[in-house]
């Protein structure tokens, strides 16, 4: 009996065709793994532009006083996790409900101050600028701008940083993030729901908020320079309630509506699927609309991506591409190279395959692959466009021969 395998060439050929056509409704969901892929250190000493949650947690803990650290550690024991976002959610809960009573020797005001301090430190860490020159976000924008599109590209992100905004603004690429105005931009849900801006305007939806969001005296979320803590939503038992308020309700509704549109394709990168609120929404929409599709590009091996695989195993319109294999049409199998689609396919294969490993789970490789599909504006191998064109010609010839 022959073991089932997946040929990455076949699926990358199909994806290249979709990415270069400009006719598909394409959305991209970007998670915390995106800025981690940018090295601002050296080849020997990797230093991510913005660390992952574990790195962020370590930095925040180092800024706490002895009393703050003691309260933090007790909460960590209570919830059984050292995830700064989960602990911050518990701190905010205590600040709201305990009043003058004490929990771990802290009153409500103490927890409120601790919450603000942690948020200030988070903002310091994520308030980074993109490095000069080529980077994953510049490659992403290169792909967006390199193709005439019938539908706007929609970017959904859980990140609080301003890296995407910076990449778009460097190239003078117009985008709409749900806010309108200049000095204190106000949230405009009606434009999100109608979604009738020109296709060349990128849609940017920040599902968990942003460091440049704040609240005015009326309690309304505005976009400005941002205050000390920002208006950010953290993964917790409170998240569902928080996301029912503006602007988060409109942003999550946009994610839902995108996946319910006919023939839509959502690509995810740097997203672990551990966020239950978003993951459940994706699962619900994929079940409701069989004509939509989701391709998850995961950094780890198949056996380490249980959150993503749990959905893909029961949703045939979701595929998960991992380092050593994939789940496609509900079938989980290892990768195995086949015959290349054309004689000049090697340069394209080099973008997604190296040392017997699939590369696109890394955000940097993912964006470079996108840039290679941008119609010649990218900085990647110049022969990619011609190789793809030849592959398409070969495929058309095969189809014609099959019909004779």
Low-confidence stretches: 376-386, 400-404
Number of strands: 16
Shape: globular
CATH superfamily of the largest domain: TPP-binding domain
Using the CA coordinates, give the radius of gyration.
Answer: 22 Å
Question: How many separate helices?
Answer: 16
Task: Could you tell me the CATH topology label of the largest domain.
Answer: Rossmann fold
Q: What is the CATH class designation of the largest domain?
A: Alpha Beta
**Major sheet: arrangement of strands:** 1-14-13-12-11-10-2-3-7-4
Strand content: 5-15%
Give the topology.
Elements: E1 5-6, H1 8-21, E2 25-30, H2 33-36, H3 53-62, H4 66-79, H5 84-97, H6 108-126, H7 136-145, E3 154-157, H8 163-170, E4 175-176, E5 179-180, E6 185-187, H9 189-194, E7 202-206, E8 213-215, E9 221-223, H10 239-242, H11 248-260, E10 264-269, H12 276-288, E11 293-297, H13 306-312, E12 318-321, E13 325-328, E14 331-335, H14 346-352, E15 353-354, E16 357-358, H15 363-371, H16 384-402
Description:
Helices cover 42% and strands 14% of the residues. With 404 residues, it is of the alpha/beta class. It folds into 2 domains: 5-37 and 133-396, TPP-binding domain (Rossmann fold), CATH 3.40.50; 53-126. A hairpin with a 2-residue loop joins strand 15 (353-354) and strand 16 (357-358). The chain is globular. The relative contact order is 0.14. The model is unreliable at 376-386 and 400-404 (pLDDT under 50).
């Amino acid at each position: 009996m022959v073991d089932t395998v997946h040929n990455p060439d076949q699926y990358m050929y199909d994806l290249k065709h979709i990415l270069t056509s400009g006719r598909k409704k394409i959305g991209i969901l970007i998670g915390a793994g995106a800025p981690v892929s940018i090295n601002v250190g050296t080849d020997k000493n990797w230093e991510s532009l913005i660390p992952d949650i574990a790195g962020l947690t370590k930095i925040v803990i180092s800024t706490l006083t002895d009393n703050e650290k003691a309260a933090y550690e007790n909460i960590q024991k209570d919830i059984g996790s050292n995830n700064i976002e989960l602990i911050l959610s518990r701190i905010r809960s205590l600040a709201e409900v305990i009043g003058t009573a004490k929990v771990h020797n802290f009153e409500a005001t103490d927890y409120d101050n601790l919450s603000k301090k942690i948020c200030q430190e988070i903002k310091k860490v994520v308030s980074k600028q993109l490095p000069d020159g080529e980077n994953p976000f510049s490659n992403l924008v290169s792909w967006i701008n390199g193709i005439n599109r019938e539908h706007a590209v929609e970017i959904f992100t859980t990140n609080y940083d301003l890296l995407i905004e910076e990449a778009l603004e460097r190239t003078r690429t117009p985008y709409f993030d749900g806010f309108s105005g200049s000095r204190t931009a106000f949230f405009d849900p009606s434009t999100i729901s109608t979604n009738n801006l020109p296709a060349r305007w990128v849609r940017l939806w920040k599902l968990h908020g942003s460091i440049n969001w704040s609240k005015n005296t009326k309690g309304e979320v505005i976009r400005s320079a941002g205050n000390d803590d920002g208006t950010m939503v953290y993964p917790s038992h409170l998240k569902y309630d928080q996301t029912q308020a503006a602007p988060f309700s409109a942003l999550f509704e946009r994610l839902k509506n995108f996946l319910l549109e006919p023939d839509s394709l959502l690509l995810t990168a740097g997203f672990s699927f551990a966020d239950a609120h978003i993951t459940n929404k994706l699962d619900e929409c994929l079940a409701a609309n069989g004509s939509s599709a989701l391709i998850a590009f995961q950094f780890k091996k198949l056996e380490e991506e249980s959150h993503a695989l749990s959905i893909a195993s029961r949703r045939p319109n979701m595929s998960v591409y991992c380092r050593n294999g994939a789940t496609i049409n509900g079938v989980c199998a290892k990768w195995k190279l086949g015959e290349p689609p054309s004689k000049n396919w090697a340069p394209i294969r080099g973008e997604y395959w190296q040392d017997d490993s699939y590369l696109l789970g890394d955000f940097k490789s993912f964006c470079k692959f996108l840039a290679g599909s941008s119609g010649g504006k990218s900085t990647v191998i110049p022969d990619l466009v011609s190789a793809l064109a030849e592959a398409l010609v070969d495929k058309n010839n095969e189809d014609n021969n099959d019909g004779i």
